[in-house]
# Entry
Amino acid sequence: MKNRIVACLCASFCLAAGPVHAQEQHASERMVAASPVSWAGLWVGESSFGPRLRGPLNLHRSAAGSWIARVQGETVPVGRSTAGNGAIRWSFAFGDQARFTGWQAQPGAIIEGHWLQEPGPVQSQSFATPVRLEPAGAAAFTGEIAPFDQRVSLNIPLIAEGAGDEPGTSRYRTFMRNPERNQGVFFRIETATADGDAIRFANADGEILATGRSVEPGERFTLFFPRFDQVFDFTRRPRSDAPGFYPRRWPEAETQLVQPVSLDDGWGTASPGESGLDEDLLAELVGSIAAFEPTVLREPYIHGLLIAHRGRLVVEEYFHGYHRDVPHDSRSAGKSLTSALLGIAIRQDAIPHVDTPVYPYFGGVEAFANPDPRKERMTLRHLVTMSPGFDCDDGDYDTPGHEDNMQSQDAQADWYRYTLDLPMAREPGETGLYCTAGLNLIGGVLQQATGMQLARFFHEEFARPLDISHYQLNLSPTDDPYMGGGIRLRPRDFLKLGQVYLDGGVWNGTRIVSEEWVAESTAPYASLNEEDDYGFAWWLRSYEVEGQSIDTYYASGNGGQLLFVAPALELVVLIHAGNYSDGRTRNAFRDRFMRDSILPAALAAGPAGG
# Structure
């Protein structure tokens, strides 16, 4: 889902001087001239918006026999009901802050479910995170809540350019880096002018976008951001304390790769050298990322790089404060996971085949607006190959099916119905156009076909078999997981999706999707950007490396969320990045990393089976 903080953090900011807090800083780290005050340096403003409820969750039965849930000292009553198969459903809510829905196979068994947190100021949709409640005696259960954290880090470098146009002023070149959403692409500050205790930020046209006020001259200034209804306190930061701006604190220490650690998550590990890869070539790539010095906005913003070779994790490197336990936004790379869930349902015979018509699952064409005989011919194959025929094109804001139009309207909260109501513009299968709404509709089919809530289907049929215990499902207004992208998975867990496909649909001996589904999914069916470049929600791309043509297929998401599979080299690669709404930069480092470093390093190990 495209989660909008705001188009430009509000067009006009306000002069303000909110509360500030003392901060120790070594004299050698200060960059203040005697007179006038120098503003040159890196300035960082950070804030956390919760959510507040987190940590231990306990259920217990009261003396009166009713059940009670407790989090951080707060208690609420628990609802229980029995399904036809004897399973028990559990539910409770902490006002408008969060809710829990769960299921239990039988009394006394483990309770599994999801914690649903409400939208926040940073990400404007709800999230569902898994919760596992273990029995703790005869009348109690205990578990842990790990919600999505709503955090913001704004990083503004001020690079001195001399005196300003007015007497007594100084001028600086600047831009803003924001690891969570890359908001500098929208809040396009390019210059700053310091005038006494005020600093004004302007765009390329000289329009003033924000004015900050110095609270501690040369050391601290404040900006009020109406979008968050909060004053941000900006302080000077050295490289050692600015992960939102610099990739690593101490890049000079990155002289060799460290073998990934072995965890209880299904991954075996090895060093790149042990796997036969060119370790020097990969170390050079990682070192160049770690030592990167940002100078302009549109430069690579790499968060993570993971590589698996011949079934073992051999590279696991993180930057900008990210690490293995932080679920990362997948954006549209999550569409490939939607394709996998469809393959799971077909393998289980919940859905006959990929050419099954769509509308019968929802009551037929006549139940929706804009009835059209072409809708009767629409199948799941058309949805998963971006060719449903709807008037839907994410590259054209004038189409009613554009993802932003669907998400921004409030007349229809049910996005499945919104999509089914769309008018048709062409025959299904005739033309491939990027249509996220159509991909998301697959989630509605899965719920209807399996008779399970989509979140539970994902948990039981994908997450659990792949040893995935922590994730964050972004939700639609009707609390349905959004299948158009945006699920947050820990990097090692998202990498597993690529390994499943590389191994013909199997994860560590457990069949997830059929081998036939993998072959079908990664064959060309549509031409979206280039000829025959799209399969079942997988992109197809070939690279010329050392005189050889290396075929790959990959999941791709806004910002640089890239999951590559190169079958001939037994290679799976995951790149996470923060270049949101900057496809030019993403595509440049995508091809440079793969063509110049990663694929050549894998060629050193020889072909598959070598």
In short: Residues 1-35 have pLDDT under 50 and may be disordered. The CA atoms of residues 69 and 75 lie 5 Å apart.
